[in-house]
Amino acid sequence: MSDILSNWEAIGAIIGIIAIIGAVINWLIQQRSSASIKKELQLIDRTFYKYLSAPDECFHELLLQRMKLSKKLKEERVDPQIFTTLEQRINSYISQLTFREIKSKYNLNDSFKQNLLNALADGQISVEEMFVLKNEIQKNEHLQENEKIQLMKDLEKFQSEAVERMPDSVGNGSIDENPKKKNILSIALLGGGILIVLVFVGLMMFEEGEEVSKADEETAVVETQDLEAITNESEEPIAVNSEAPAEIEEAENENTVPVEETKTTEAEPESVKAVKPVVETPKEEKPKLPMYDEMIYVQGGTFSMGSDIGSNDEKPVHTISVSGFSIRKYEVSQREWKTVMGSRISAAAGFISEDYPAINVSWYDAVKFCNKKSQSEGLSPCYTISGTNVTCDFSKNGYRLPTEAEWEYAATGGKKNQGFKFSGADDLKSVGWTKKDALSNVMELGKKGPNQSGIFDMSGNAAEWCWDWFKRGYYSTAEGSDPKGPESGSYKIVRGGSWKDDAYDCRTTYREWESPTFKENTIGFRMVRR
């Protein structure tokens, strides 16, 4: 048996090692190809941001890149799942373009916008979603009849383009029934190689075990023979000293040390006891939970507001002067919301933990919170609320929402501004949570780094309500000192981006707007005071 095995041991080990090496090489080739595709994904991101202000040109460029990568998929060994990710990225961007175009073109209610967002989420509109959107359009009181007809044409056009973009994968989200099939060779080689090596190692161990057992038997026979020979050579019996035990016993008695009796300590007199101080065990105090209500003073100054390389709503860059003010170091927490408003945010509305931002609050909710917080501290509330009409007296000392100018000035670091893209850094990962590193909701307050003024979470995590109404083209006529925004409007400004957004939406100059009644688990707020 051992002779037969010895002939195959070397061959089997070599075959197993070659199979394992082949699996590693095949895997490395796939990784290299996948890395090149990932670079193409980055190119798609750059294309989207580069042509964002020209939707038609952006759409054209994205489709060209999809065709090139489709060809590359057929020519190279690429994991199809990466290509599926590419398709989803392109469709997501085209959906964003469509949503922004429709949103800016028509005056739609919040319900329709939310349904439209859901419908565009996977780059197309299903039959059921189209039916829902049609009903929403017909019921919309803000749209004229010709606008309703045109909006339906826009949606149907987008749907037909979605089918042309991805004819092989509409409705199933994948272009390959088994995206792992190109990894079968690597798995087969690796598994086969390991199996072969294990088999032959096991056989080698079995052979060694047989040799060891034979050697043990031979050794035992030799030792038995030697013992018998020694016994036969001994003619005289071994003498036993009968007095040895007595001598040993005497020696033991001499070396024995008697054990002294333990003396009992006399009881201490009462006078001594009285002198001893009584040490009280300190009571454990429960740690005070943070309210995250610390304020940071931002010294007034002048800065360049807006961006010439962002979207049209960020242009033009204009010089603004802001008076000094105090701003919350953190966004309003769920713990503080519960303390001030008397009940916590419900789980359905977004309650996670008391150390997380208060989310799913409308602009009106935030205004009411500011007034109630001011009253609880004996301050003069800034807001006068009459139904849906809200006015603000900026001369009062109570809490209020920041103006858009105050928010951007604080986010850039005020007088400590270093020109960063995000609030505190050019690398968003160090200062904010986005959909790339947040799990599925907002994250705990203050877990990323602060900006130059020591303020946390102004880029990502929860987007934040501002005081100002939104008006397209407002920046071209904005006031130069402490601007308060347009006098009226339909939407309120939201700043900072959220955990659900891309990095582009978390820039300090990026502007978003929503109805003041809108609520979502991406929007919270922070407060300021003069």
Please tell me about this protein's structure.
The protein has 530 residues and is α+β, with helices and mostly antiparallel strands. It is built from twelve helices and eleven strands. The protein has a four-stranded mixed beta sheet with strand order 9-8-7-10, with helices on one face. It has a three-stranded antiparallel beta sheet with strand order 1-4-11, with no helix packed on it. The longest helix is centred in the middle third of the chain and has 50 residues, at 184-233.
Mind sketching the topology for me?
Blueprint: H1 2-50, H2 55-75, H3 80-105, H4 110-120, H5 127-139, H6 145-165, H7 184-233, H8 244-255, H9 270-275, E1 295-298, E2 301-305, E3 318-322, E4 325-328, H10 334-341, H11 363-376, E5 383-386, E6 389-392, H12 404-411, E7 463-469, E8 492-495, E9 511-514, E10 523-524, E11 528-529
Parallel strand pairs: 7-10
Antiparallel strand pairs: 1-4, 2-3, 4-11, 5-6, 7-8, 8-9
Helix pairs in contact: 1-2, 1-3, 1-7, 2-3, 3-4, 4-5, 5-6
Q: State the total count of DSSP E strands.
A: 11
The value of Rg in angstroms is 39 Å
Question: What's the pLDDT, averaged over the residues?
Answer: 75
Beta content: 5-15%
Shape: globular
Q: What profile does the largest beta sheet have?
A: 4 strands, mixed
Number of domains: 2
**Helix/strand/pairing category:** alpha+beta
Largest sheet strand order: 9-8-7-10
Under the CATH scheme, which architecture of the largest domain would be assigned? Answer: Alpha-Beta Complex
- Write the H/E string, N to C: HHHHHHHHHEEEEHHEEHEEEEE
Question: Low-confidence spans: pLDDT under 50, at least 5 residues?
Answer: 1-5, 166-182, 230-276, 283-288
The N- to C-terminal Cα distance equals 93 Å
Helix content: 40-55%
* CATH fold annotation of the largest domain: paralog of FGE (formylglycine-generating enzyme)
CATH homologous superfamily of the largest domain - what is it?
paralog of FGE (formylglycine-generating enzyme)
The number of helical runs is 12
